Amino acid sequence: MLCFDSVALRHADGTQALDGVSLDVPAGQFCVVLGASGAGKSTLLRTVNGLARPTAGAVRVQGTPVAPRNLARLRPRIGMIHQQFNLVARATVAQNVLCGALPAMPLWRVLPGLFTEAARRKACALIEAVGLGEEHLLRRVGELSGGQQQRVGIARAFMLDPPLVLADEPVASLDPQTSHDVLDLLRRQARERGATVLCSLHQLDLAREFADRIVALRRGRVVFDGAPQAFGQDAFEAVYGRSAETPAQAASPAGRRPLPIAAPMPPSALPAGLLELAP
After folding, report:
1. Is 90 a domain residue?
2. Which residue has the higher pLDDT, 260 or 53?
3. What pTM was estimated for this model as a whole?
């Protein structure tokens, strides 16, 4: 379904975002890309839909190279779920979901928003499938909770039944229970439709629960590629560069003990002038 062949990307300022990433993602797999901030997760996903262009190597979707000449054909096959939802807050739920059909529509239908009856029925079915009711159809997205907005984002992503869905930190701004519910919904929708999912996450516990496979990046390189149950302490250290620490140890400079905190001075030991200022 998806192939990264020695993909590298260096930004104009010299930053190496990706460094020789090679991996194949088979059809139907829920693959989680794990890593710390700045590891290259979002950049990797953006190379798939052409929003970022590799400086070396190649990306292929179903055998088709991701290149400017092919983007018009590829983008209808790729659904996208964003960290910040990327919805139109003033538009209704139905209108936002229908926008998922735009990549496959001719320009004369796009500009006036002339969606077909089949598209409208599909949007209603998807809104119901993600757990929103008929009462949500005409509500403005800006009135919904974060979890509800991401449900709208998932429905929009599946409007064209894409074989591949990219989810870029889809639960980063959600609370733990809502995060779990949204990922469960995404996995169920993907399995029902036979879609492949490439999903970037920060949360290791969610990656272990929902992924069929974890690919972990550090400084743009793959440092782990395997089953969730194989992601142990060695893999954690390879990804994050250190072992798990207590909060006190993590807050102290590397290799040093936390500085001792002196006990507060009793009031009798304070200068008289300060006592007058005390509440």
Report:
1. yes
2. 53
3. 0.81
